[in-house]
Amino acid sequence: MRRHSLLRFAPCLALFALPACSSTSSDLSDSDFEGSNSATAASTAPSDEAGPSDPSGGSGGLEEGGAEDGDSASAGGTGSAEEAGDEVGEGGSGEDSGGEPIDPGQLTAGEWRDLDHWDFWLNLLMSDMWSAMQERWGFFTDQRYAVVVTDGPDGAHVADAKVVLLAGQQPLWTTRTDVRGEAELFAGMFSTPPDAARTLEVTVDGVTKVVEGVEPAWSEPIVVAVDAYEPPQQILDLMFMVDTTGSMGDELSYLQAELADVIDRVREQVGQQYTFRVSVNFYRDDGDEYLVRPFGFTTDVDQAIADLNAQSADGGGDTPEAVDAALKNAIEGHEWSDSAVARLCFLVLDAPPHDDEQTIADVRASVKAAAAKGVRLIPLAASGTDKDLEFLLRFGAIASGGTYTFLTDHSGIGGGHTEPTIGAYQVEILNDLLVRLISGSLVDE
Fold first, then answer.
1. Is the model's pTM score more than 0.70?
2. Would 436 be classed as within a structural domain?
3. Which domain holds residue 377?
4. Helix 357-373, helix 128-137: angle, nearest 10
C-alpha cells in the first residue's frame, strides 16, 4: 500500500539535487548492502528535477538521495558524535553557543517507508549481513498481512478500526487502522506462531466482522468491508520522545527549534478541525540526572513548547541509552486517546538500547503495545546513528505502521550522518518533512 505525499499541506522550502541510487530491488547483492568506498556526492543547488524514489518501481520526489551501507553524503558534517562519546556538550534551549535564538528550517532530513518498498526490504533481508539484524533484535517481518477496512455502503476508508490477526483462537497481532483504513499485521514477529488457520477480526463501533482463511498479503491488501460506522473523534495525539544524553549536544538546540516550529505549525493547520494533544518527553540512561522526564498530553501548546525548550544535553557516558525505558513510558505511561484519527510518536535519538536479553524483550513488547494502541512509531535518527540502530528503528516503524526518518549531512550541522541502506529518497527541510507526515496522517488521499 503506497502513501502519497501531501505537499499542499507542507511544501518543501528547499530541495537539494542528489543522484539517485542505482540499485534496484531485483539486482541487489550482498556487495550492495556492505557499502563501497565512494560516497554519495551532494549539490546544494535547488533543483526541480524529479526521479524515482523506489528502486522497485515507485514514484519519487523532487529531490533524491541514497547510498549503500557505509556511505555518507559528502556535504556537511564534521564527524560522528559517537566518536566523541556521550559527553559532547550542553546543547539545548533553542539557542546557539552564543546565546542567539536558532531559526528553524536549517536541519535536513529524509524519509523511507519500508512498508511502501516491501520488495526492497525483503531483498535486503536476504543478504547474510542484513538478515543477521533479524536475529540480533528478534524482529521477523516476512509474514505480513496488509489490510484495508472500508465502509460497505460507499467504500469509504474506515479509520481507527481494531484489527486482530489470530491463529486458531490465539491472537498474533493487534492494531488499528489509520485514516486511510490501512492496518499492518504480522504473524511470527517475535516467535513461531501456532500451525493453525489464520483469521482476521475487525471491530468497528462494537461490532466484529470475522474473515477466515486469510494468507499473508502486501501487494494486494486484504479488503474488509464493514457496515456503516461513526468516524472516530477528531483528535490528533502527537508525541515526541527525545534523547537528551551528551552525544545529542551537537544537534539538540537545532532540533528544539525545528520541533517547536513543527508543533506550532501543526496547531495553526489543524487547530480548528481537530483536538490537538501534544506530549514532549526526554530520556537519558541509568545513573543520569533522570531516566525519563515525561510531560503528559496537553492541549496547552505553548506550555509544551516551553517544556521542550527548557531541556539540555548531558550524561550518557556510553553509547547505549535507555531506549527501552523511553519506549515503555511513551506507550504505557501516557493516556493515549481511546478514539482518534491519528496517534503519532516521534522517537528522536542517536544511540541504541542496551543489548541484554531483557532490554531487547522490553523494546519488542513496547513496539507490540504501540501497534495495539494504534500508535505509529516514527523514529528520527540523528548524527552518530549506526546500522544496528537504523535497522532496529526500521523494524519498529514497520511493526507499528510508521515510517523511518533521518537527518542528513546537507545542512552542515552536527556530526556526520551515515547514509541509510535504502533506495533513492527526497532530501527535505526537517520541519517541512515532519509537518507533511503529521498533516498526511489526518487526510485520506
1. yes
2. yes
3. 82-136+233-440
4. 90
